[in-house]
Amino acid sequence: MSLERSSRTDYQAAFAARIRNPASRGNPDGAPRPPGAPARRMRVYEELLFNNLEGFLLACYPVTRKMLGAPLWKKTVRQFFVEHRCHSPLFRDIPKAFLDWLGESVDVRFPDLPFLAEFMHYEWLELAVSISPEEADPGAVDPAGDLLAGRPALNPTGRLVCSRYPLHRIGPRFKPTAPDAEPNCYLLFRDATDDVRFILLNPLAARLIALLADGQQPGSQKLVGSEAITRLAGQTTPEQLPIYLEAGSVLLADLRTQGALLGTWRHP
User: Fold this and answer.
1) Chain centroid to CA 181: how far?
2) 207/217 Cα distance (integer angstroms)
3) How far apart are CA 197 and CA 72, in angstroms?
4) How far apart are CA 98 and CA 242, in angstroms?
5) b/e for 111-148, b at 16 or more Cβ within 10 A?
6) Which domains does the chain have, with CATH numbers?
7) Which H helix or E strand runs over 198?
């Protein structure tokens, strides 16, 4: 490598280090301004890149930011900017990189918010569902199909998540300190108008969704709606089975109305 190229590379590295972690009175361990770089122009780059990064994160985690408060939020984002090296060129991947970077350290960083790891995953899922490229072949689905006699077709953008905390209630005014006795389950999906929908599920509905989702995986057992409901009913008596089938039929119809189910698969 020539001396000129080496100097250019060193300068670029120093420039990037300064943008990530600028030295200041409050941050004496930060990177110094590269020799010859105008202070005013350097500040423009420092603020522009950090604000852009923060903007992508704010779009995904607006409630998290409110709960942390501006100083702690900015401190955490700055640390992410300093420490993390993104491997994807796509801006939409930044929120997931932030979530992965936090990892198990969430509980240590924010001990007063024991629910935060699960809540941030819940916030990120909204983005994941909104940009999901998955879609069903319209020709493979019968929108008016019999949901008990046929195989229910789940919306391919659907994501089932269960949490120890009531994620739909959490916000600046409600921060639970202990998990619920029973899990809270949610189905997130993108509807026909491309809006992301959230459905709070009861335990039976969550188990049914999970069973149907497993049935759509390659090589798995494919169940029609009545078979899936009967399996969930377990060791129920013959007299009770019609009650389960009726309740399951109502549930499946409601999920189709909301867009979580697209209909039934045309082919076994």
Assistant:
1) 24
2) 16
3) 30
4) 48
5) eebbbbbbbbbbbbbbbbbeebeeebeeeebeeebebb
6) 1-86 (no CATH), 112-268 (3.90.930.50)
7) strand 196-201
What is the DSSP annotation of 241-267? HHHHHHHHHHHHHHHHHHTSEEEEES-
Angle CA 8–13–19, to nearest 5: 125
Closest CA to 223 of 252, 181, 198: 252
Contact 82, 21 (CB under 8 A): yes
Walk along the chain (268 residues) and give the pLDDT tens digit of each residue. 443 555 888 888 888 888 888 878 778 888 788 888 888 888 888 889 899 999 999 999 999 999 999 999 999 999 999 989 888 888 999 999 999 999 989 999 999 999 999 999 999 999 999 999 998 898 999 999 999 999 999 999 999 999 999 999 999 999 999 999 999 999 999 999 999 999 999 988 999 999 999 988 877 788 999 999 999 887 667 778 888 899 999 999 999 999 999 999 998 6
Helices 70-83 and 94-102 cross at an angle (nearest 10°) of: 90
Residue type, 265: W
The residue type at 133 = P
Non-local (6+) Cβ contacts of 175 within 8 A are 67, 112, 113, 115
For 136, the token pair is 């069903």
Q: CB burial class (10 A; 0-12, 13-18, 19+) of residue 166?
A: middle
